[in-house]
């Protein structure tokens, strides 16, 4: 109690806090591996911030999607230009989300340390007024699931304009034949693995639609924390370092699959990003009630056999495509 009182009485040096947060963002927003680790470490230090664990598990999926592009099958299916553009779509979106979300997490950590809300400083990081209000609400009322949902709503709005509505990505990624084919076949799936070789998760169609992505995030949050499977996911996260390769979980399959995708840091260099000026706040006082509403959860979220079948479909399509190309 004495230590807590001493900390609370410390003078808060806001410029120093801002400098340290900027330094930590730069260190941990290097690549998908660093982001995943930062989210995960933060969660196990502050388990009340559920979104951080959700973000780490979704970030693992982003890494697996990235290295798929340099794996055996996608190198057959797509040329280098398409694979590079898809990689940059994942990389840019995840970089933007981290750039926005990580200072929020760190300011919460500082607020806990000083036992005082420091969320006014979020504006120094161009964080939405929506999240400033949500963090203040959380600080007073400790509504854990509401904060998780708010962060899901925010992260998907953050990438809507610069990624989903950006002309280059719209034209060459989301309206391209390979992407549409994957979308139709439900390859847009987020997987949470277990050490028992089981896979759980949900798919989303029309991934570029904002509400669809928010609904997916809410379902994944439910799966992680309210489906009764939390201990399995936690055990996997603690036991398996994230390498970016799907072999992270495929090695637990009973059929002893061989590695078909590379390690992320062996496949890709560090990418330099810039914010291209100040980010516009997506929130203009509009109602967000529709995004907080609970959604019906599909009954079937054990996807092990389904996922393997879809992978086989992708392999077959790739072979057919290669046959027609070389005929």
List keywords for this structure.
327 residues, mainly alpha, two-stranded antiparallel sheet, 16 helices
Q: Indicate the multimeric state.
A: single chain
Unreliable residue runs: none
Proportion of strand residues: under 5%
- Which overall shape is indicated by the principal axes computed on the Cα atoms? globular
Major β-sheet annotation = 2 strands, antiparallel
What is the number of strand segments? 2
Radius of gyration: 20 Å
H/E topology pattern:
HHHHHHHHHHEEHHHHHH
Q: Can you walk me through this structure?
A:
By secondary structure, the protein is mainly alpha-helical. The protein has one domain (2-326). It is built from 16 helices and two strands. It has helices spanning 2-9, 14-28, 32-45, 50-68, 72-77, 80-114, 129-141, 144-164, 167-174, 177-184, 210-226, 230-239, 247-250, 264-267, 289-292, 304-326; strands at 189-193, 199-203. Strand 1 and strand 2 form a beta hairpin. Helix 7 runs antiparallel to helix 8 (144-164).
